Amino acid sequence: MTRYVIHYTLDGQRRWDFANLEDGTEAEAMQALLAIHGQDQAANLAVIKVSRAL
Questions:
Q1: Beta bridge partners of 3
Q2: Which of 3, 15, 17, 46 is within CB 3.0–4.6 Å of 53 for a Cys-Cys bond?
Q3: Predicted confidence (pLDDT) per residue in 33-53, tens digit
Q4: Angstrom distance (rounded) from CA 30 to CA 36
Q5: Residue 32 belongs to what H/E stretch?
Q6: Distance from chain centroid for Cα 1
């Protein structure tokens, strides 16, 4: 696994979090964000961008 930073918007606020992901895909990042924020926030997540952490 590789450490990635996920940039996203939640309820109109720009945020970021780190996550260990296999491939760094947007779908994989969405699953990590749902684990962090809960399934009820799925409709509020937008503009997801994934990049490798330094």
A1: 20
A2: 3
A3: 999 999 999 999 999 999 998
A4: 10
A5: helix 26-37
A6: 15
CA nearest 4: which of 29, 39, 27, 34? Answer: 29
- Model pLDDT for residues 12-38, shown as the tens digit of each residue: 999 999 999 999 999 999 999 999 999
Q: The tokens of 2 are what?
A: 């590789």
Amino acid identity of 13?
Q
Residue the block writes with tokens 């937008």 = 46
Summary count for the chain: helices (H), strands (E): 1, 3
Task: Tell me which residue has tokens 């918007």.
Answer: 9
**Measured between alpha carbons, how far is residue 27 from residues 3, 33 in Å?**
16, 10
Using alpha carbons, select from 51, 36, 50, 42 the residue that is nearest to residue 11: 42
